[in-house]
Amino acid sequence: MRLNEKLYTLSTIVENKPGVLFRTANMFRRRGFNIESISVGTIEQDGLSRMTITVYADEDTAEQIIKQLSKLIDVIKVNVLDETDIVKRELALIKIQIQDSRSLTELTNYCNIFRNRIIDVSPDSMIVEVTGTPDKVDAFVQLVQGYGIREMARTGITALQRGSKK
Amino acid sequence: MVKMSGSQALVQGLWSEGVRAIFGIPGGQIMPVYDALYDSEIRHILARHEQCAAHMADGYARASGHPGVCMATSGPGATNLVTGIATAYADSSPIVAITGQVAKPFIGKDAFQECDTIGIVTPITKYTLQPMEPNEIPEAIKKAFLIASTGRPGPVLIDIPRDVQTGVSDISIPDKVEIRGYKPHIKPHPLQIERAADLLLNADKPIIWSGGGVIIANAAPQLRAIAELLLAPVVTSLIGKGSFPENHPLSLGPIGMHGRPEANKMVCETDCLLAVGVRFSDRSTGRFDEFCQDASIIHIDIDPAELGKNKKPNLPIVADVGIALNELLAAIKRKLAKREETAWSKRVEEVKEQFQNGSFGESKGYQPQIVEKIREILPSNGILTTEVGKNQMWGELYYKVIEPRTWITSTGLGTMGFGFPAAVGAKVAKPDVPVVDLAGDGSFRMTENSLAVCVDEHIPVTVVILNNSSLGMVEQWQRLFHDKRYSAVKLSGSPDFVKLAEAYGAQGFRAQSIDEFGKVFKEAIKSEVATVIDCPVASEEDVFPFVPPGRGLKDVLYGAEGV
Ligand SMILES: Cc1ncc(C[n+]2csc(CCOP(=O)(O)OP(=O)(O)O)c2C)c(N)n1
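ok -> structure tokens follow
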């Protein structure tokens, strides 16, 4: 993140059909904007998807990104979520090495404190599911780094505005 | 509902969109469509290269205001269209490109002549469609024409797998389509219009900068009325030439790198710039930070993303330029009945005087004289296209465009080889007016095969080649900025263009003087066959004035000395 830049979460409703993700991602690439994270999934209405895109940008760049996104014909609506009033979640699956029984106990304790779920355990590793704000996921990743992370998959952020605003 | 094939549905759909001419080349994966065209009254013009087909469609669109249609087979046919599509995209020209694709079961299998056409053209199209069932074709066509021609226009490509063309189904042609994510902004905010009127009326030195958007919106009359009421001079972008009559006392001509010096000068002096249907291209503005730095800027455009993209306006107005100018005119009229001569309007006259009969300190060169001769002879509704290079810049500086849609040039992409096929397309759209391509020898050679199309299809356009046996513009830059190290610019080995024209069955002339040129040019534009006029010129004659790249508009050079 550079000076003047801040985080924008763009909740973007798009047509759910082939090529839309390509066109959207391509717009970012072509104009030199950088996507911090993106997650895509269907929504309550048929035929539509939500792309939750986060970017670090200064105000002018953010304005351009929003306008260029809105201009895409398959984009129905772009909402800039109010960062002070937002529910943000990310899910991560982390495969952590288990060196000995002591580390198993410690990791199990950490998972309890973080309210993570242990999905799978084998003699030398476990898979943990972490759900929460990106900060929480970051914190947990940092905590267990020393045990050895074998593999990790993060979904990217998905988000909704709180309350009745839509 | 009627039982028909996808190809028949396509041809019917095109007909009902008003398409009467298609420019294209057939091939394996588009043959079913060509078979359906056999029974249709739509005129098919067989290009000799798909790039030319796309430029022809573009020229047709720019001359007529209606989308032009080009067609090609899959793979190499589609990739040959790319330059033409990119050219249309850069200049917001509505073309609809139709490409064949391998049959659905072969897609993704690296089949013969398969390529990812949509993947290739996505960054250079406004939209793409790929109907996957025959009965999806009519809706795809409707959407394509709607999207291409409304809002900020642009190219749309429809890619149709071969089995979708041949498949037979119950098909009906819809009257209209709904696209939920597509709502081109139309009406300006009334308060913003009021504010714009106040800003303009309170300014001492208002100036109007008019662009291609004014031509697209057919808004030249409103723009002129506003200029005359405010006594505000008008400058244009290169593509905006013709949006305001350049023989009007308030016209200063185009601004920019090779703009008219009086236009560049006055734009540096203004205190209020009304920018309409322009996109603040760096070729027009020079350095963004220096451009109109002391003026308040009102920017009207239909594309919200253009407002603030390159330069932040004080007053952004998102609207259809035609509607916005209508309302702005009404708002100004409510506050001002008539304006008498002002200090600013006197200054405009004075600066114009200084440059107009304009030799900028030197005697007027030969090429400018040819360009002015063309203007003198061509009627005001005659169409001039250009290639790219010095020929285009001399056209920009010396050819006074009087009516909208009579000046057709590749500005955004700067595509050599555009002018000739674009002239062919323009002539198909406007068969009753003379159409002329102002060319350089380098550019002409890129698409000269369109001569065959002119002869075959009886499309009598005139090509005037300013033949300097050089990639002249590059040579000029090497002369000015690369210490005269002439690298790969000499075009020796060109054919005799008179004989070349004759070999195609067209007409060829050589003009060695202005008088000779005038004589053959008069004959050419009345001729029933296409004509090439070869004008040998000196490659050392450069285009000035010139604002060097990376500089502001006040840094105009009138000759090599200042570099
Ligand atoms: C397709 C394409 N290739 C290369 C260029 C780069 N370019 C710009 S001007 C120019 C020379 C044009 O030569 P010519 O058509 O003879 O015109 P002149 O400048 O001599 O009038 C070149 C090579 C271009 N604009 N387009």
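The CA atoms of residues 5 and 168 of chain B lie 4 Å apart.
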